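quick one before i forget lol
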Amino acid sequence: MKPHSVIPAVRGFKELEKALSAPSDTLFLLEGELIHLRHLVEGVKRANKKIFLHLDLVKGIKEDEAAIHYLAKDIKIDGIISTRTSSLLHAKKYGLTTVQRGFLIDSQSVRTILKSAEHGKPDYIELLPSYSYPKVQEVKEGTGVQIILGGFIDRDTDLPVLFEAGAVAVSTSRSELWNYPGS
């Protein structure tokens, strides 16, 4: 993942076409159904992009090891996003890149994210909401993991602040931000 990337967070087919033309080499698929995954992933691969599947949100998939094995070997996703440590550990077994998603609501949630990262050893941590950016350095130093920020990123003027706070990338479903310089 390139530093200061804006990662398209895609929810549907219409957004996918636009995301494929964005400069980011990575897409986050946040919604969908198992029946459509193969077709979606093939399209993303033809565009020479990586696709990370939000395992907790796609319908028709359990977060067990067999499902992750299927996604890695047959569907050929590049990575998963999950709040579940067990999913991250299964994904690692099959060579997938992992993004631990965590929601910062109070100081206890920071401790929970640090503890989960210690056990799950994710490749990245995605912190939500983005306005929790003052905690980026604390989580980064506590885990040694690069941080992605997401949620409530509304304007291009938000992006420099988030990158200056230490985020390696941001994820957003706002398509007007997908062509941010530096992505």
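fyi The radius of gyration is 15 Å.
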